[in-house]
Amino acid sequence: MNKRFILLTLSVSFCLYWFSNLYLWYPWSYDPRLGITLMLTLSPLIWIIGIIYILQRKSNLPLLKSAILISIVFVVISVLSDLFFFGIIRDSLHELLKPTTYYGYLYILILPIIVSFIGKSKLQQNKSATNKSIFFPFVFGCLFISILFILIK
Q1: pTM recorded for the entire structure
Q2: Which terminus of the chain is more exposed, N or C, with fewer CB under 10 A?
């Protein structure tokens, strides 16, 4: 397996998760239905951009296997980050036990596979090296989580 590809996937997943939480925080705290609506409409577009960003990088894996790896990493990072954010930081683990949470996990599990099928020809043609900017998404993820902590407190 390509370690750089896995690091990039972890880094982008971390960044996307915390960016999503950051831009959903105010709408969700104002009205949960507004937050859910944004989560189900705007969030997929942001995750799709991240998926395309990752799939355009070189990997030793075929495209479908890369998409499956991305799916697994996205779900694991999301579950762990949700447990951290809602369980430890906000002490409101009960907020995770809602159908929308599980729909979100299912959605980010299948989304990379759907993107890989839809964009198969383009994604296989335009591969670039993964050694560029592996840690930029991680740095942005740290920035997003820091801003979110400041806003919460």
Answers
A1: 0.84
A2: C
SS (H, E, C) 10-67: HHHHHHHHHHHHHHHHHHHHHCHHHHHHHHHHHHHHHHHHHHHHHHCECCCCCHHHHH
pLDDT in tens, 78-105: 999 999 888 888 888 887 888 878 888 9
Tokens 């577009």 belong to residue: 45
Contact 21, 148 (CB under 8 A): yes
**Coil, strand or helix at 128:** strand
Burial of 1 from C-beta contacts in 10 A (0-12 / 13-18 / 19+): exposed
